[in-house]
Every structure is written in C-alpha cells, then in structure tokens.
Amino acid sequence: MNSESVETTQKLAKTLAQIVTPGTTILLHGDLGAGKTTFTQGFARALGIKRPVKSPTFTLVREYQTPDFMLYHLDVYRLGEEGGADDLGLAEYFNASSVSLVEWSEYIQADLPSDVLNVTLTRTDTYDKIDQRKIEVTATGSHSQQILNQLEQTYGLDN
Ligand SMILES: Nc1ncnc2c1ncn2[C@@H]1O[C@H](COP(=O)(O)OP(=O)(O)OP(=O)(O)O)[C@@H](O)[C@H]1O
Ligand SMILES: [Mg+2]
C-alpha cells in the first residue's frame, strides 16, 4: 500500500496492533528515516501505551506492558557497527506470550524465529510529496500468515 502521511502509516500500525496475538514477531525493514519507529509509535499507542515510544538508546530493547501481553521494541542498529551479533540472549524476547517489533533485525539473524511478519517501508517521496512511503507486508509462517490475512481483510493493502 502507499502511505502519504505519518497518520496513514500509524493507522495501518494501529489496525495491525488490534489484530496481533501473543507470539507475533514483526520485523520492520527500511532505511534510516523510512518510518520504522513511527510505525511502532502508532502500534504501541493503539495498545494503550501512554509512555513515549522511542528507540532504546542504552539498551537494545524497551519493554511495555499492554493489557494482554508484553510488547518489546528492539532496535539493534548499533550492533551493525560491530558486525552483528548472535549470542546476546535476544531470542528470549521472541516467545509465545509476547509481541515484538524489531528494527534492523538483519543484525540478529540467528536469534530470530522463523515465523515472522515482515513490514517493509520504502521512501517514495518526491519534491512535492515529501511524506510518501510504500509499505509492504509479508508473512513467513502460518501464525504470521493468519495475521496477514486478517490485516488484508480489515485494511485493503492493495491500494
Ligand atoms: N508516510 C510516512 N510514514 C512514516 N514516517 C513518515 C512519513 N512521512 C514522513 N515521515 C517522517 O519520516 C521520519 C521517519 O522517522 P523514523 O524515526 O520513524 O524512521 P526509522 O525508520 O525508525 O529510522 P531509523 O532507522 O533511523 O531508526 C519521521 O520524521 C516522520 O515524521
Ligand atoms: Mg527507528
């Protein structure tokens, strides 16, 4: 789908937040400034989180309690500067009773579960349309496919 504003991106995030169930891992892909954290903010707000949602700075993970599950926001960009990592114990965040959103997941490949929802944000902005983004969502397993099917039913992704 195409997003022409922060609000549209966050509306999709909100719709997804209302569909996810514990055990869902969402990998957010896209360049610096594509909108991964912006997406996460819309997602967290829809789950009633009032604390400001921003990327972790001193740690790799920020944790939020929602009524139904723990929400983890991982941003492991820093690991890229060290050539990646695969034994930090991050796998514990991807479990059946919580939901996680991950920025720069390519740096923790070994810790990731196989069934994930991929959300890819691409800047498609031009000089007169600076807020344009393309957002693609794909699933890699049966749990994430179920979530994606529901997302497509509630939110036409083809536009
Ligand atoms: N349609 C849009 N969707 C999302 N963000 C948008 C959109 N249009 C403009 N923006 C702006 O783009 C920026 C996205 O920044 P954000 O921090 O979310 O990116 P990021 O992908 O998390 O980058 P980083 O890899 O540095 O963490 C924000 O300043 C936001 O206001
Ligand atoms: Mg970010």
UniProtKB/TrEMBL annotation:
Q: Does the keyword Nucleotide-binding apply?
A: yes
Identify the SUPFAM superfamilies for this entry: P-loop containing nucleoside triphosphate hydrolases (SSF52540)
InterPro entries reported in the protein's UniProt record: P-loop_NTPase (IPR027417), T6A_TsaE (IPR003442)
Task: Tell me the keywords, alphabetical order.
Answer: ATP-binding, Cytoplasm, Magnesium, Metal-binding, Nucleotide-binding, tRNA processing
Cell compartments where the protein resides: Cytoplasm
Which domain of life does the UniProt lineage start with?
Bacteria
Q: Specify the protein name.
A: tRNA threonylcarbamoyladenosine biosynthesis protein TsaE
Organism listed in the record: Weissella viridescens (Lactobacillus viridescens)
Phylogenetic lineage:
Bacteria, Bacillati, Bacillota, Bacilli, Lactobacillales
